[in-house]
Structures are given as C-alpha cells and as structure tokens.
Recover the amino acids of this structure.
C-alpha cells in the first residue's frame, strides 16, 4: 500500500512528509517499546506506535522505517515533528488504537516483520 | 469466541490458563505502556504485549482482560506465571510479532 | 579509497531526552564514509542500545567510534553501578528497568541481547560500583 492509501484507510492525519505519500509500504511493526523495533523491524517497514517522544524518530532513522504511524489519536509534540522533518521521516496520526490499526492494515495485505537482525558473533565475558 | 478457541486457532502456547480458558473474547488491545493499557483497554479484551514482568498481571486483573498474549516467543518470568495463575489470567505466547497476531485476532473477531 | 575515522561522543546519565542522538550521528558519519547499509544499521543499533543503557543506569559514559580499513570498532565505557550478573543481563527480556523507564518506551530487556546480535565480535566486562565496558566489532 502507499502511504496515501494507509492514511485514507485509517483516517490518518499527515503531520510530516506530505510530499512522500507515494512511498510503497509492504511491512509493519507495532510496538511501544523501542528495543523491539531495533531487534525485529525490517528496513522500509512502517512503525506503528503509541509513543510520541523524539525517540521514535531516532529509532525510525536507525532502522530505516519508511514512516511512523502514531495511534490512539496522539499527536506528537513539536520537538518530535521537527526532528522528523530534519531526518525526513513521514509521521502520520490515526485515532484508531494499535489493535485496530494493525488489524486493518493486516487485512489489506501488509505483513509483519519476522526477520531478526543477524550477525555472526562471539561473546567473550571478561 | 473464547480464549481456548483463540489459542487453538492461532497456535498459541498456553503457559497458564486453568479454568479461565472459556472466557469470552470481545476485543483486543495492543500496547506496552501500562498507563495506556490502563486508560484504553476494556473488559474482555485480549491484551497483546511484549512486557513479560509481573506488573502486567495486576493491569489485566484491574481491566478484566480475557487473556494476555506475549509476542515474539517471549517467556514470562516465574513470578509472572505464578501471579497469573493465582489471579486466573490466561497467559499465552505467540512466536509472531504484535502486528501479525493482532491482525489475525482482528480478522477472527470480525467474522 | 576507503575512509577511516575516529571520534568520541560523551553521554550523560539520566538524559532520556537525548537518547539516540549519538547513534543517529554515528549512522550519518558511517554513511559519509561509505559503509554499506547492513553494517551501518548494525553499528547504529548497537550504539543506540549502549547509549540507552548509559542514560538509564549510569552516571555518564563515552562512545568511542573507530573505523579502520576492515572494521567498525565501537568502544563504550561508563561510570556507574555496573552489572552484577552479566549472563543474566544478556538474556532476552531480562530488565532491571523501573516503571518510569518503561513508560518512556525503554526497558524491554533487549539491550545487551540486541548489541550481541548486531556485533561480529562482542566483549563485555563490568565491575560493581565502577562501571561497564563494551567492545563491539563489526566487519565493514
């Protein structure tokens, strides 16, 4: 789905990134705890979260999320939106709760991220 | 649709459930911030979360959730299982992410 | 010609509003040097989790980034309570975070686990009441 289609489906407001609405989104990750996003989210996925602090933008930048979708009718504060503009990450907000948001997107063909970040490693406790 | 049916349909591992597996599931709530869950979830909801510590049980009891589902194969700690057993809250585990499991539950509820 | 770099980033304990600032900068820097996507992403994630650990638990710390011809080396040292049981702390989901930390979106207990998964080699040492030292190596 494109971001535009996602916004339409969820009656979402586009807070940042109005010129990026043709971005194609295939995967999504729903979380309030950011460590999970770091561990499991795929590049290009849309981050669905109830968190609104600037963290979400930094995390999105680190894992290469295509956009952030804030749920539960929350509007992130100015500092979050400013950072999103700076880092060029679209931010949307929907009134729907995370459960419904996930449900609707899933029903429309968006899939979850199942890959975990891999890297060959050895742990040496000192 | 009850918790037992949900667990069966979605291949969930039941860590404890006891005699509460026939509670009716009327909705779902996904979230890891306890304050949001307290404010937004409803009685009869299945609560999907990655939080595995024992505080989740108190929240579920207060909000009268039908069950708690932990995502990404997370294992609840011993204290959590004990409390959940005591309070009669079914504790289920899925290997899937919150997005995926919420998606499936949503479809089931819809029908 | 492959580029190298070396820099230090201080991190103040308790400054949750700053969490991620260093990692975002590290990622930008690595992109400028031409580090490929995957290595860059892994380095940023490892740095992020380390940053958050310092902010959540330590008094202060420092991230030392070094990029050589073949590797990205991230050395993190903090001054703080240290970790009493490293093996336990490395477990997925194990967390000593309080409710306040969790309400901000942190404390999932994935930090060290994520760092380990992102590294090609990883060393950790800690001394109670002194601090923790991480050495992360990622191949370019």
């Amino acid at each position: 789905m494109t971001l535009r289609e996602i916004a339409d489906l969820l009656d979402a407001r586009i807070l940042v990134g109005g010129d990026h609405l043709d971005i194609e989104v295939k995967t999504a990750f729903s979380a309030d705890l950011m460590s999970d996003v770091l561990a499991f989210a795929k590049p290009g996925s849309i981050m669905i979260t109830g968190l609104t602090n600037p963290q979400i933008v930094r995390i999105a930048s680190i894992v290469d999320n295509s956009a952030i979708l804030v749920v539960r009718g929350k509007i992130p504060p100015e500092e979050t939106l400013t950072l999103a503009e700076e880092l060029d990450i679209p931010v949307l907000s929907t009134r729907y709760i995370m459960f419904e948001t996930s449900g609707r997107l899933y029903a429309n063909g968006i899939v979850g991220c199942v890959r975990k970040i891999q890297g060959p490693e050895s742990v040496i406790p000192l | 649709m009850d918790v037992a049916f949900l667990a069966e349909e979605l291949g969930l591992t039941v860590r404890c459930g006891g005699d509460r597996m026939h509670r009716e599931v009327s909705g779902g709530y996904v979230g890891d911030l306890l304050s949001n869950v307290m404010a937004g979830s409803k009685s009869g909801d299945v609560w999907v979360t990655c939080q595995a510590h024992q505080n989740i049980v108190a929240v579920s009891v207060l909000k009268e959730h039908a069950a708690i589902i932990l995502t990404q194969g997370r294992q609840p700690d011993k204290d959590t299982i004990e409390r959940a057993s005591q309070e009669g809250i079914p504790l289920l585990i899925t290997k899937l992410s919150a997005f995926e499991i919420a998606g499936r539950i949503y479809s089931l509820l819809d029908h | 010609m492959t580029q190298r770099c070396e820099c230090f980033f201080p991190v103040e304990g308790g400054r949750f509003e700053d969490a991620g600032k260093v990692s975002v900068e590290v990622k930008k820097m690595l992109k400028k040097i031409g580090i490929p996507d995957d290595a860059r992403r892994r380095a940023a994630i490892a740095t992020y989790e380390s940053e958050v650990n310092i902010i959540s638990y330590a008094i202060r710390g420092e991230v030392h980034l070094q990029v050589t011809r073949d590797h990205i080396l991230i050395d993190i040292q903090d001054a703080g309570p240290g970790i009493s049981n490293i093996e336990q702390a490395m477990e997925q989901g194990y967390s000593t975070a309080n409710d306040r930390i969790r309400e901000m979106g942190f404390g999932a207990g994935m930090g060290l686990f994520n760092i380990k998964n992102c590294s090609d080699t990883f060393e950790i040492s800690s001394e109670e009441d002194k601090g923790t030292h991480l050495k992360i190596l990622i191949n370019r």
About this structure: The mean pLDDT of chain C is 91. The first helix of chain C runs from residue 21 to 33. Chain C is about 35% helix and 30% strand.
